[in-house]
Amino acid sequence: MNLIDSLIGGGWLKTPRIIEAFRRIKRVDFLPKDLEDLAELNEALPIGYGQTISQPLVVAFMLEQLEPKEGDKILDIGSGSGWT
């Protein structure tokens, strides 16, 4: 089972628009080359300079709790990787 399907199956991803965003924006594109094979793990991963890319479950939880509507803007402070 891939990462997104496991987040859906676990009840972390529910909203169709958020699910579509997870499917379209690939986490692998925001990782260092040497970590690309770990992109499907549900873990925070190091991205350099003592920073990590967020655990997908945490990102899914935050977005679902926010209940964003079309046109909303969300600022994620500390999103050093650009993926959230």
Keywords:
single chain; 84 residues; alpha+beta; two-stranded antiparallel sheet; 3 helices; 2 strands; globular
Q: Name the structural class.
A: alpha+beta
Could you list the spans in which at least 5 consecutive residues all have pLDDT below 50?
Answer: none
> From the alpha-carbon coordinates, what is the Rg to the nearest angstrom?
13 Å
Estimate the global geometry from the Cα principal axes. Answer: globular
Give a count of the beta strands, DSSP E runs of length 2 or more: 2
Q: How many distinct domains?
A: 1
Count of DSSP H/I helices: 3
Please estimate the helix content. Answer: 25-40%
Write the layout of secondary structure elements.
Elements: H1 3-9, H2 16-24, E1 45-48, E2 51-53, H3 56-66
Antiparallel strand pairs: 1-2
Written overview of the protein:
The chain is α+β, with helices and mostly antiparallel strands and 84 residues long. It has one domain. Helices cover 32% and strands 8% of the residues. The chain is built from 3 helices and 2 strands, in the order ααββα. The longest helix has 11 residues. Belongs to the methyltransferase superfamily. L-isoaspartyl/D-aspartyl protein methyltransferase family. Keywords: Cytoplasm, Methyltransferase, S-adenosyl-L-methionine, Transferase. This is Protein-L-isoaspartate O-methyltransferase. It holds the Pfam family PCMT.
